[in-house]
Amino acid sequence: MKVGIDLGTTYSTVAKYDRTSSKAEVVNNSFGKELTPSVICFLENNEIMIGEDAKDMQAGGVGIIAASFKRGMGDNSFTVEANGKVYTAEELSGMLLKQLISDAEAQLKEKITEVVITVPAYFNDFQRTATIRAGESCGVKVIKIINEPTAAAISYGYNHTTNKTVMVYDLGGGTFDTTIVKINKGNIQVIGTDGDHILGGKDWDAAIVKYVCEQFVDEFGVDPRDNESAKNELIVAAENYKRVLTKTGSVPIQVKYDGNVGKYTLTREQFDTKTQFLLNATKDVCLKLLSDLNMQWSELDEILLVGGSTRMPQISEFLEKLSGIKVVSHEDTDLAVAKGAAITSELYCSNNTGLREAQITDVTAHSLGALSVSIDGKKYINEIMIKRNSKVPTTCKKSFKISEGNMTDKIEVYTLQGESKVPLDCYVLAKVVITGFFNNGNGATIDIGYTYDENGVVQVSAYQDGEQLEVNSEELPEDISWMNDVPGSMPSDVPISKNIVICVDLSRSMKISLDDVKTSIKDFINSVADENTKFGLVGFGDKVKILKDMTPDTNNIIDSLEELKVNILGRGTDGSPLGTAQMMLSGKTGAKMVIVLTDGIWGKRDFAVSEAIALKNARIATVAIGFADADTSFLRQIATVEEGAMFTTLDGMGTTFSTIATAINSGSMGMRESSEERPRIKN
């Protein structure tokens, strides 16, 4: 038995293709429901609840809750600790998948042996392989990983005969993808895709929680988010409030906490205003995709809405105004992805008798590159082998020449994923070692193949004179900062000095969040501090002020951090701290980084972007962390390294800073020093 599984951030669904009805049909869970909450609850008695029961526990503020863990797939720094055990996102996903499969088997009265699992189109290699491993941990064969928008397009277009060019706008609970497809007589051809794996309906929920808690704090002086149980209750309630606002103009909200009862009203107009920045973030992704493909809105026939979050009226209204073309909702908004996966599972079935043949072509969302040396030999570069939006599967070969006199018996290959020419601005995916080739010192040529398979997973192969060579994977070194060095240089005994300026938004909006922000920054400083690292602290609002100049004294910088207060530099954010940060780093030797933390929308954004460009030209890495009302698209404009724009929540801020700390300590965060700044030992 084969099924398709939509492994969602907030809800998951199982579907199968029914040959009798010639339709993909959802398989209900043990509660008789089509959707299973992607929630796991750990109770003190070591009992583990998954799905509907876990969601009830979350609503009641009971137990340790794991939710939205899909966003942490492929990231080992994302963990949930419960009852003395630490779980990664991959392990949590495996637990959820096992429950989904078990429920489906009970309903179908048949053993499930093979599955097709959906992933966001913008998932990278780490996230895709983690999803495959999570599926295999359940004892089933993962016959294919398919992109969610592609699955939705299959569900929508398989029985369509009319030629259409469609933009699939897929806004799920935790991820956003947009994909342009051509549908011709049921054949699906993906033209291009883009997305944001940390943007979804949960962020609209978070805006409601923030609004309610701000009202509560103003009235009673205490914040329900300070209590884990109260916060979880609000998170669940916010999802319901959002649903009410899709049908009515306002929703009454009651909050009980610490003996106080707050009663508030949230109108749809207020909700739309407070979440406009999230819509703008999806707009930027759509416009970037069109630009990358050299397309105009007028070349599309319609925009297809997929994902439960697209039920919000603001979505269709926004897109119609933006594009001027027809916006349609998938009749199976919540179920389209799972049904598309079920159809795919049947298409991949060796004894498929229920479906006609169909051509389904997909693309990769990220460029695949190889670590190479620039023509002048002065630096390592990411040499792009397969460009993003190339059809998959696809392979590109490169010849590696061993010069005369070189008696090497192995070749090390590093693969990278990303668009930047700078290696450490990309994901460094893997290291493989090629052996078994003939080399007598007279020179030899090895052909290396770089492949995206049909799942979008990376593979490396090698050949000599047409004969396949042995390729073995090895662990990536913990320190890959040498990729910033001059090729052929030896590591220096002199440690790299690091200079980090932390810029904190101190506008009025930060009032509720500041204590959590201080804690996260303090933990970050302690995790990267050493005798060769200096920190600086900048506050900004309408004005900008250096609160602590560059210092190696950790206690000194933390003391300054503890003294932070809101409104001391104005109530708004018209000031940009980036120029001030560059001035503080000027003349400093070693690697340099600016970390900006903000929860609001800046006033003079064009000026801030120009300052960010100056930082990039000065080889200063800039990371922008935003939460609450921060504008994700603006964060991308001021971040100078790949994936340097990070949108998070107060709950996830610790994990975000942990990710940055890990990247800095491993040398993979794009912090670079100029060649004249560091002593080197030459060959």
Provide a descriptive summary of the structure in words:
The protein is an alpha/beta fold. It has four domains: 2-199 and 279-363, ATPase, nucleotide binding domain (Nucleotidyltransferase, domain 5, 2-Layer Sandwich); 204-265, Actin, Chain A, domain 4; 368-476, Substrate Binding Domain Of DNAk, Chain A, domain 1 (Sandwich); 498-675, Rossmann fold (3-Layer(aba) Sandwich). It has 16 helices and 35 strands. It has a seven-stranded mixed sheet with strand order 18-17-12-13-14-19-22, sandwiched between helices. Strands 1, 2, 3, 4, 10 and 11 form a six-stranded mixed sheet that branches. Helix 5 crosses helix 6 (228-245), helix 11 packs antiparallel against helix 12 and helix 11 runs parallel beside helix 16. The longest helix is centred in the N-terminal third of the chain and has 20 residues, at 89-108.
- What is the arithmetic mean of pLDDT? 87
Residue ranges: pLDDT <50 for 5 or more in a row?
674-683
Number of helices: 16
Could you state the CATH homologous superfamily of the largest domain?
Answer: ATPase, nucleotide binding domain
Reading off the top of the CATH hierarchy, the class of the largest domain is best stated as: Alpha Beta
Strand order of the largest sheet: 18-17-12-13-14-19-22
Q: How many beta strands in the DSSP annotation?
A: 35
% residues in beta strands: 25-35%
Number of domains: 4
User: What would CATH call the architecture of the largest domain?
Assistant: 2-Layer Sandwich
Shape: globular
The end-to-end distance, rounded to whole angstroms, is: 61 Å
- Rg: 26 Å
Biggest beta sheet summary? 7 strands, mixed
What fraction, in percent, of the residue positions are helical?
A: 25-40%
What would the CATH topology of the largest domain be? Nucleotidyltransferase, domain 5
Derived structural class: alpha/beta
